[in-house]
Amino acid sequence: MAYPAAVSFWARISRSPGWDRLTLEGELDLASSPILKAVLDRLERGPASVIVVDLRRVSFLDASGLHVLVAPEPDGGLTDMIEVEISSMNAERFQSVLAVIHQILARPGIRAAG
Description:
CATH class: Alpha Beta
Radius of gyration: 14 Å
Shape: globular
Distance between the termini: 30 Å
Helix content: 25-40%
Number of helices: 4
CATH superfamily: STAS domain
Largest sheet: 5 strands, mixed
Mean pLDDT: 77
CATH architecture: 2-Layer Sandwich
Order of helices and strands: EEEHEHHEH
């Protein structure tokens, strides 16, 4: 099953017993992040206990796309289910972005919205 957002983003679901793989391709940004959120919400309601999000074909990732992947849900459910796969080329960049977010959230008076 594939969900096109625009020409620049695709989300494909493949199911296995106990887990689902969500392969993303293209630009994960402000325009496509609502679609990712809707797909993840749908997968969360399914039978899988783990959702593997494959980012190896994502060519661009902005803060709104990252927010969908790492922001905690009120009940903690979805983020507890997600495992992320990234290419070695993007791993360092992804980890750098997460480190910056962690530093911002560690400042006094700053808290995550939600």
